[in-house]
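Note to self: the last two entries modelled the partners one at a time, which told us nothing about the interface. This time every component goes in together.
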Amino acid sequence: MKPIYINSIGSVSAQKTYNNREFLTDVVSYFDTEIRVIDPDYKQFIPPAAARRMAKGIKMSTVSSQIAMTEAGLENVDAIIVGTGLGCIGDSEKFVSAIIDNNEQFLTPTRFIQSSHNTVAGQIALGIGCKGHNFTFVHSSISFESALMDSKMMLENNEAENILVGGVDELVSHHIDTHKLIGHIKKEPVATKDLLQSGTKGMIMGEGASFFVLSNKKLPSCYAELVAISTYNTLSKESLIAKVKSFLEESKTLPETIDLVILGNNGDIEFDHYYDTLRNDLFKDTPQAYYKHLCGEFDTASGFAFWLANKILKTQTVPEAVQLNQKSKPTTGTVLLYNQYRGENHSLTLLRRC
Amino acid sequence: MSELKQELKEKIIEQLNLEDISVDEIANDDPLFGQGLGLDSIDALELIVMLDKDYGIKLADPKEGRKIFESINTMAAYITANRTT
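The predicted structure of the combined assembly is written out below.
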């Protein structure tokens, strides 16, 4: 297989990640049940006339994709592929609310235009004038990974040279209310630094956008190589270790050669045991990291993990704030990411230093 | 009439998300489209819906909008003459 390079990154999250020259130097802590992104100065990236119709998810994505495109030194790409769990849910909610409130009358175009999932990929394409493949994957907590897989296959088959791929989800009030109602958000606020010790059900909900330029040629800005990615809609805890081993075997990688495993623990005592299975067995001697205390849980939170892995591989630094155990290695050459949400939609992603 | 003009400015700013513009910055005779506020065709649709919803005015011919939406003055005059609510 041809190597796939991650040539640039861009992220807007609940941390100050929009500046690629920094790497979690000033970690922001929260005490809440949901956490929002730290907004960059959107006016620096988006003309006011365009920004006024953009939902938050579009603004976050536009900024992070611009950061990635600039870092890669590209003005255009062959394809734009986005993963999102709920798209522009904020405008979807407003549009549906207007239908109900106004008895199906007086519906205005702006909210409707932005109420579809593929608005983000479309707006980015309009912004840079990209007329190539434009695709949006909507698949719960493997939405971002689905977008990554499509990108990887396109690059391997020479259907594209440079692809802008990303994941985005926004946090809005009705969505928070419904998740609280069904008990998926923690009932009591938690200090994010103590997330894994909360001992309670549910998550701290978050939002964010992370974008990357993937190419089949290595650019000077290159962060890492995307070696393999796999998703599983259902996976029992008992079969997890065997699945990880077989995933690594396909890439001719032994578990003991993994230098860092990044896990998607979200502090939910009902489902974090999946991660414990790997932490206490297959990777008990491997350096471990986690990240959802920094960005919150959302369908494309694994995009933040992908950003984190790329930064670690390029800078060869594992920030203290993400370290999950006391293990360390002198260099980080291979990183494995594992994520799942409420026991479903598992993903494994393997990255290598380049 | 001046109250209506003030109300229209507030509604336009709110409904069209003109975050960087204040009521004081919109003169009554400023063109709303093109060189003035820079509104576009999607905004025109929003304004047509606003006339219907808030003032009970249905524009049978959208082309009428070109004259009605020239400025705050023309909007206020049309609404005063045709409002049903």
